[in-house]
Design brief:
Keywords: Hydrolase. This is Amidohydrolase-related domain-containing protein. GO terms for molecular function: hydrolase activity, acting on carbon-nitrogen (but not peptide) bonds. It comes from Liquidambar formosana. The chain is an alpha/beta fold and 480 residues long. The chain folds into two domains: 124 residues, Urease, subunit C, domain 1 (Roll); 303 residues, TIM Barrel (Alpha-Beta Barrel). It is 39% helix and 20% strand. It contains 18 helices and 20 strands. Strands 1, 2, 3, 4, 5, 17, 18, 19 and 20 form a nine-stranded mixed β-sheet that branches. Strands 10-11-12-13-14 form a five-stranded parallel β-sheet. A four-stranded parallel β-sheet has the order 6-7-8-9. The chain is globular, with a radius of gyration of 22 Å.
Length: 480
């Protein structure tokens, strides 16, 4: 890890998009970082007057944009080495013949390299925190997250039943699944200067016995941590739940019945839900991770506008490389607004260009993301302090933020800053990223790892992994 080079950093002459409760945007703002916390924020002249004499470092951002780090609430970091192995196939082929053979043949070193490669792409797209969606070697993930300097909620991919499971997975019992996660919690929770948290994972209801669902629910409550689960991804899933669990609709209805819908549940995708189930999710305080690219690819159009109207906290995720290929939350912001505008034609027979406006999308990528990973008291917005709890204790947020250079062909001219961040910005516009008060990318250079070395390691590891897994990618055209 890069050592802290100064204790008080002052950044000024910036457009600061705070994402605070008042949605304040400072057109010429300044911010002071004290070690790893935000100490002050306001107009540049006021910040300079108060802090320039004591600042160890003063940075003139020359009109660039400063905003909170983005939060990717659904990403399979250990699938990065499998980018491109499952394009243009149906979901069951994707799962049973590509992804499960791939994941079941991974080593801890593979997971480490895969997470490094994924993390580099996440940082370049402005992500400072992510929620792992489930993989096999959490210790490898944790090692990579620590080195990269990111913040993460890590989970083990957990299954104890279902057809088509690799042999090494099919022998797992419910108790094995719970015990291994407890051990991971003891080993890694709150490590890496507090940047790593361990959650419990449920891959999907089709691979979970009732015993696993209930014990996961109770263990998460005991450990005071979150649960990350793929929920209502495809119609087949809902039909299987209706056939085997004897409920009226599907996964969400059943999870409500067994009281697994709670505030600590992060439900990924949640595409195939009806109005009644949206009500269940809202009343329980469940958070939903919307992954627009993956949804368009093989899942369908989730009723995101209806969820937001019902008061559900909806955030954004990329999913994994084999189901999206691009780990850019910037791309997901653009897609989320467009496909949900377009879905209005399918849902209501007419267009609605006002659906999911730019400010809503920015909230999904920042403060909603923070709430989804149960970290909203400390990340997701640029504020000096937040009063929390009955005692009104003041929590000082971590310094997680990104710098965007809007003065390029992709963003100029800027008539509407907020609109431009969603509809014009590309990953290339993000030039510097700070997490926990430390720069992890400056001037588009990743600081804590050698990108070229990681790419070389990934090419070799992915080739060897596919050979072990016996995965052959068919030729699409005539290769000479």
């Amino acid at each position: 890890m890069e050592a802290k080079t100064s204790s008080l950093i002052l950044l000024h002459n910036a457009t600061i998009v705070t994402m605070d409760p008042q949605s304040r945007v400072f057109r010429n703002g300044g911010i002071v970082i004290d070690e790893d916390k935000i100490k002050a924020i306001g107009q540049s002249l006021e910040i300079l007057h108060e802090f320039s004499a004591v600042a160890d470092q003063i940075i003139d951002l020359q009109g660039q944009v400063l905003l909170p780090g983005f939060i990717n609430t659904h990403v399979h970091t250990s699938q990065q080495l499998g980018r491109g192995i499952a394009d243009d196939v149906d979901l069951m082929t994707w799962l049973h013949h590509r992804i499960w053979p791939y994941e079941s043949n991974m080593t801890e070193e593979d997971s480490y390299v895969s997470t490094l490669l994924c993390g580099i792409e996440l940082i370049h797209s402005g992500v400072t925190c992510f929620a792992e969606a489930g993989g096999q070697h959490v210790s490898g993930m944790a090692r990579a997250v620590d080195l990269l300097g990111l913040r993460a909620c890590l989970v083990q991919s957990t299954m104890d039943s279902g057809q088509g499971l690799p042999e090494s997975w099919a022998i797992r019992t419910t108790d094995d699944c719970i015990q291994s996660q407890k051990e991971l919690y003891e080993k890694h929770h709150n490590t890496a200067d507090g940047r790593i948290r361990i959650w419990l994972g449920l891959r999907q209801i089709m691979n979970s016995t009732d015993s696993l669902l209930l014990k996961t629910r109770d263990t998460a409550k005991q450990l005071k941590t979150g649960i990350h689960m793929h929920v209502a991804e495809i119609p087949y899933e809902n039909q299987l739940v209706m056939d085997t669990r004897e409920v009226g609709h599907g996964t969400v209805t059943y999870l409500e019945k067994i009281e697994l819908l709670q505030k600590n549940l992060l439900a990924a995708h949640s595409v195939w839900v009806n109005d009644t189930e949206i009500g269940f999710l809202s009343r329980a305080g469940v958070k939903v991770s919307h992954c627009p690219a993956a949804a368009m690819r093989m899942l369908g159009f989730a009723p995101i506008k209806e969820m937001l109207d019902a008061g559900i906290c909806v955030s954004l995720g990329t999913d994994g490389a084999p189901s999206n290929n691009r780990m850019s939350i910037v791309d997901e912001m653009y897609l989320a607004s467009l496909i949900n505008k377009g879905r209005e034609v399918y849902a209501n027979g007419t267009t609605d260009p006002t659906a999911l406006p730019a400010e809503t999308i920015l909230k999904m990528a920042t403060i909603n993301g923070a709430e989804s990973v149960l970290w909203d008291n400390e990340i997701g917005s640029l504020v000096v302090g937040k009063k929390v709890g009955l005692s009104a204790q003041i929590i000082f947020p971590w310094a997680d933020m990104i710098i965007v250079n809007p003065f390029s062909w992709s963003m100029v001219p800027i008539h509407d800053c907020i609109s431009s961040l969603v509809y014009c910005m590309r990953s290339e516009n993000i030039i510097s990223v700070m997490c926990n008060g430390r720069w992890i990318m400056k001037n588009q250079k990743i600081l804590n790892v050698d990108e070229g070395e990681v790419i070389s390691m990934a090419k070799q590891a992915s080739s060897e992994l596919l050979k072990r897994a016996g995965i052959r990618i068919p030729n699409r055209m005539t290769l000479l």
